[in-house]
Amino acid sequence: MTRHLIAVVGNSPGVGKSTLCRSLAAWLKDTGATVDHFPEADILTRPAFRPVAEEFADGNHSVRPETLIESTRAYLAESRAAGIDVLVTDALLPFIPSLVAWGHDEPSLARVLHELTTAVEPTQVTVVYLHDDPSAALQRALTREGPDWANWYVTTLAASPGTRSVHDLASAAAHLHHEAALTQRLLATTPWNVLTVDVAHLDASQTATHVRHRLTGLIDCPPR
Fold first, then answer.
1. pTM above 0.85, yes or no
2. What is the mean pLDDT of residues 39-55?
């Protein structure tokens, strides 16, 4: 049975989600656990999420909450059947940034989260929420990805109904501030473990060490 799902999310690009996921997956494998590391881009290729990819590509560039919920349920079922102990997902569950961009309001998001909590049962869920000042995190992402990234990111947000107020990195940062507060309110209503990590003064190695230490008691893995 899949015992634990570790969902790594963040309040902004540039906070180190993908790096942390790779580190956690390697650490968990070293403990002897069977691990599925689900990178962010895999949502377009994983069999359980094929309905999500197909719906997103049908011209509307959005996905119904019901599709996300059922694909999540299918992913957990596949993982249990395969004997996976721990899932480490990168910017997947609980889909809040995407749902906000597609125009869903807070009551709608609360209903989706309630249904997701049922869909993943009986697997234990821990959300690792990486947090930094969005302006600083966006600048890190810009440095890492190059100057064309900012135009792509802003254009992508501006094209979606829930984020049309975004027109530059400053307005993107303002949106991310609002979205962070919304995310924290919503996560507080779930039965999941939520580990909020302020990464402003941590490098990737320090972040990984801190998160491993906090996860050890939750997943019965020895610290490294």
1. yes
2. 96
